[in-house]
Design goal:
The chain has five helices and two strands; from the N terminus they run ααββααα. The chain has a two-stranded antiparallel sheet with strand order 1-2. Strand 1 and strand 2 form a beta hairpin. Helix 2 runs antiparallel to helix 3 and helix 3 runs antiparallel to helix 4. Keywords: Membrane, Transmembrane, Transmembrane helix.
């Protein structure tokens, strides 16, 4: 056997726990949003928040789904890498939407994204991009 044949694929052992933590954080944020009493109404009110993040049914569903997908993706390396790219694309889009929504406040906006949400989503998109690039390079 040649040395190339005896080498196994490099493992990205740190990625799955990181994806699980991201999934748990988003799941906790989504569930906490559902437990906020004012979540039943849809509209743009700054008083409805979990910590500093706005609370609406749409955002709660998105955060909960992202959390559950993160926990499911953490079971396999390929799923974790795909999840990182999904985080990047999804949250980059949400950040773009959120910047416009926060800049031009519409009282009937069902998503009700504030600037704290924009920072969270933007940092999540950047982290997804960085993790996806590093993990994909190490997996080759």
């Amino acid at each position: 056997m040649t040395p190339a044949e005896t080498r196994s694929r490099p493992k990205v052992s740190w990625l799955r726990p990181v994806v699980a933590v991201v999934g748990l954080l988003y799941l906790a944020l989504g569930v906490a949003g559902f437990l906020t009493p004012e979540t039943a109404e849809v509209g743009h009110e700054t008083s409805r928040a979990v910590w500093i993040f706005s609370v609406t049914p749409v955002l709660n569903i998105v955060h909960t789904v992202v959390g559950v997908l993160g926990l499911l993706a953490a079971t396999r390396r390929s799923g974790a890498i795909f999840y990182c790219w999904l985080l990047f694309v999804g949250f980059a889009g949400m950040t773009a939407y959120g910047i416009l929504a926060a800049a031009f406040v519409n009282p009937e906006d069902p998503v009700n994204i504030n600037w704290a949400d924009n920072w969270l989503h933007g940092l999540t998109a950047a982290a997804g991009l960085a993790l996806g690039i590093v993990a994909a390079r190490r997996a080759r």
